[in-house]
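Customer escalation, tier 2.

The customer says the design service returned an amino acid string that "doesn't look like it belongs to this structure." They asked us to rerun it and document both sides in this ticket. The original structure tokens are below, unchanged.
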């Protein structure tokens, strides 16, 4: 039968006084079997225990270090007496990792006593986090470079998709049911196009505010609901409470959709596997007084609340969940970036994020966004009839290396009343529509020759981002674009010269 060893005090007799009272060095004294014999105040603080006595008699390989296999190096020091430099991942009282770097050495307390191992460490956690951040940054940069590399083809595909869906919707406008189905497909394709545009802006280091517009939050949540129900699955019920006639907010619609989706996924993951549960989304208006919410000005706000009846979050972790790379889901399920991005999004818009949670009862996340009261017309361009768009009768040459992209643009322009001709016919007085990608190919010579004849060209529209030294300032259209954007650009170029 195994008999527990008696507790040994954590006093200065087991650690040198200079180490025991240090605020820079963390120290521990361990028996050759792995039992904690003593610690200093700094190690107690780093590991978050209420007292040094709470650490006594704990088993190092089972309770205090992340990888139990590392104990073999500690035990070897007790056996052969050879000091070792070591970096060890300790487990704090609340489960998070503390990385300590230092030296292990054998200590013989007094004649005839068993050998012990003393470890003296410095806190390496900040440097370890920095290394993790550097690796994560490198991975993100690689992903962004890849995104930038494929963005042109992806944008062309989305442009072709959005353009053709618009043309199809015009042909079935009299069939309300079919037109609505096409409209939904077009909405989804447009959201994908906006997301691709923002990803490309980030990859290129462009202005992060690109894509910000007046957005109706309740419509965003309503349009997301079918997708969110699919994400939650059959075991989790989605409940929504969406107000009506709410003020708009001035944000990126794509980012707002990402925030709502992220919060719903977090709510889903908080409900243990095999258990049914509920996730709620509420959208409403909230008036904030001068001292009502920390970090925001008094005024009107749109409030988005996402709640669950899952496991909840311990009070000591309620603020840490907003730290980059801190995750309560473990490394296999979360990267710890979701909630920090939610906070960044809200604060950038002039709002705030708050969390309320109780272990075993669930969690509620509230996002406040400043109300934007300026009335603006619908800029989505997804339901406008073709007859409402700017049109013309000018001749247009479309120059691009992508035949499918060219055909789609020509079909759109033809539907708007323009005459299109082959890109090889540079003798006609024409409005020139250029895909920016073509400027990086042999076609650039032909384009430059055409554009530089000011008297032979009425105007130029460039789709995508490019830099030119033409004598004519082109009208630019972001890619991917909607039909209203293209129609307005071509009309502007034709009328502005």
């Amino acid at each position: 039968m195994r008999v527990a060893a008696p507790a040994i005090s954590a006093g200065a007799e087991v650690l040198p006084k200079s180490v025991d009272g240090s605020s820079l060095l963390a120290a521990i004294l361990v028996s050759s079997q792995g039992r904690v014999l003593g610690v200093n105040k700094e190690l107690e603080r780093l590991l978050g225990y209420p007292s040094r006595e709470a650490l006594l008699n704990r088993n190092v390989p089972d309770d205090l270090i992340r990888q139990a296999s590392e104990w073999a190096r500690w035990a070897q020091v007790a056996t052969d007496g050879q000091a070792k430099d070591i970096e060890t991942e300790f487990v704090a009282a609340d489960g998070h990792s503390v990385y300590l770097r230092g030296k292990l050495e054998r200590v013989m307390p007094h004649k005839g006593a068993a050998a012990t191992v003393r470890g003296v460490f410095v806190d390496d956690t900040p440097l370890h986090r920095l290394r993790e951040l550097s690796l994560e940054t490198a991975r993100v940069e690689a992903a962004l470079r890849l995104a930038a590399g494929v963005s042109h083809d992806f944008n062309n595909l989305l442009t072709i998709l959005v353009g053709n869906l618009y043309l199809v919707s015009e042909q079935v406008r009299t069939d309300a049911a079919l037109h609505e189905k096409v409209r939904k497909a077009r909405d989804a394709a447009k959201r994908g196009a906006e997301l691709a545009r923002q990803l490309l802006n980030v990859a290129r280091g462009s202005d992060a505010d690109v894509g910000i517009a007046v957005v109706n939050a309740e419509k965003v949540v309503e349009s997301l609901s079918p997708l969110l129900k699919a994400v939650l699955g059959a075991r989790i019920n989605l409940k929504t409470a969406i107000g009506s006639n709410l003020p708009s907010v001035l944000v990126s619609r794509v980012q707002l959709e990402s925030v709502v989706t992220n919060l719903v996924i977090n709510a889903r993951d908080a409900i243990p596997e095999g258990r049914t549960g509920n996730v709620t989304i509420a959208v409403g208006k909230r008036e904030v007084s001068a001292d009502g919410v920390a970090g925001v000005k008094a005024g009107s706000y749109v409030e988005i609340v996402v709640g669950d009846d899952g496991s909840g979050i311990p009070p000591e972790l309620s603020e840490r969940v907003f730290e980059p790379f801190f995750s309560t889901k473990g490394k296999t399920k979360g990267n710890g970036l979701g909630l920090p991005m939610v906070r960044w999004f809200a604060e950038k818009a002039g709002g705030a994020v708050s969390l309320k949670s109780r272990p075993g009862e669930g969690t509620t996340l509230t996002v406040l966004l400043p109300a934007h009261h300026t009335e603006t017309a619908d800029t989505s361009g997804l339901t406008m009839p073709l007859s409402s768009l700017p049109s013309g009768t000018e001749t247009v040459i479309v120059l691009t290396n992508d035949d499918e992209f060219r055909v789609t643009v020509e079909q759109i322009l033809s539907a708007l009343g323009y005459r299109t001709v082959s890109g090889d016919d540079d003798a006609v007085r024409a409005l020139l529509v250029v895909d920016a990608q073509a400027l990086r190919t042999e076609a650039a010579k032909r384009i430059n020759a055409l554009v530089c004849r000011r008297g032979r060209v009425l105007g130029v529209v460039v789709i995508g981002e490019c830099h030119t030294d033409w004598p004519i300032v082109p009208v630019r259209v972001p890619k991917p674009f909607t039909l209203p954007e293209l129609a307005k650009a071509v009309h502007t170029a034709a009328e502005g010269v």
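Tier 2 assessment: The sequence is consistent with the input. The first strand starts at residue 26 and ends at 31. Residues 1-13, 331-336, 375-382 have pLDDT under 50 and may be disordered. Sent an explanation to the customer and offered a walkthrough call.
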